[in-house]
Amino acid sequence: MTILPIYSIQSYNLASKVKYVKPSTLVTIALLISFLINLPRTLELYEVFGNISKSFDQVSVKDVLTRLLFLFAYSFIGLQLNTNWRYRLNYSKITNGVFTVLANIGLFFGAVFSFFYSHQMITATTLTSSGKGMSYFVYFTILVIVIFISRILRFQVIHRDDLAEKELLKQQSLQNELTALKNQINPHFLFNALNSLNTLVRGNQEATTFVNELSYMYRYILQSGQQDLVTLNEELKFLNSYIYLIKTRYRNRFVLDINIPENTLNKNIPSLALQLLVENAIKHNEISEENPLKVSIYLENHTIVVKNKIRSRSTLVHSTGQGLENINKRYKLLKGNEIMITKQNEFFIVKLPLI
Q1: Per the CB 3.0–4.6 Å rule, which of 6, 17, 268, 302 could disulfide with 229?
Q2: Domains within the chain, CATH numbers bracketed
Q3: Is the pTM of this model over 0.85?
């Protein structure tokens, strides 16, 4: 037996997603910080202002490049930590905050001690006590700047997402208004058209019954759209009307076998669920005189089972899988569990829990 996975519909919800700042932006900021901090040393290295003043004990090309490299790496890692990485943790707000504080402290001391060791190895000189003290001050100042910039970047991301979410909600609101207007016009027009058609075909019993069943189906779809659940009895009545229309096309090439105990008919089920499953079987399987399609609907362990033999169509049928996903999503919202879809002995089986 193969159990097929169900993928729930992913609605686009800006508020539920954490947005991250692009690394290229952080690289630019880190380069700017390291360049500005090293600018006085660079100017003194090339004696831009002559020998008017000497602010540093030792300045060399290796010294400047080492500081530039370490400050860039330190700034970039600090920005990533406070802007992006901390928001990837699935911990509580307090735990997340404690982790971030400890990570910043570890980053600070790790960067300073690494700089002392690397500077001595690269330049072959030892920093003086005042030089080390200044390094502590510089690295601490950079950390404060980095945290401040990170907060600004996060606020910008949140603000941008809020604007995008408001725009999305505005578009959805306009779409809902348009849909509501259509729903006010279409039912009235269609029912009038069906009544007119019924008058035209009066005397043809088969055509009259077809129009009546179609009218009932459309009325049921409109009414069920206003409620999440319907009784199994109501759903089966609607399904019978749908099957009447299908049999008008396929005649004896389609068979529906329903075996539901009468004491179960008052149980609830999501509206249109059975019809969607039968329609899915018709859509994906061959229906011919040689291979008629039979769909069985029966009760098993407090679940409604819809079963049909798999005879895939020879022609490719375009399918988005939205029907099954829609039913599964509705069950998760209404009942907290999912439907079960299996392939067993060449049969396609869907089980719907009764509610």
Answers
A1: 268
A2: 17-171 (no CATH), 201-353 (3.30.565.10)
A3: no
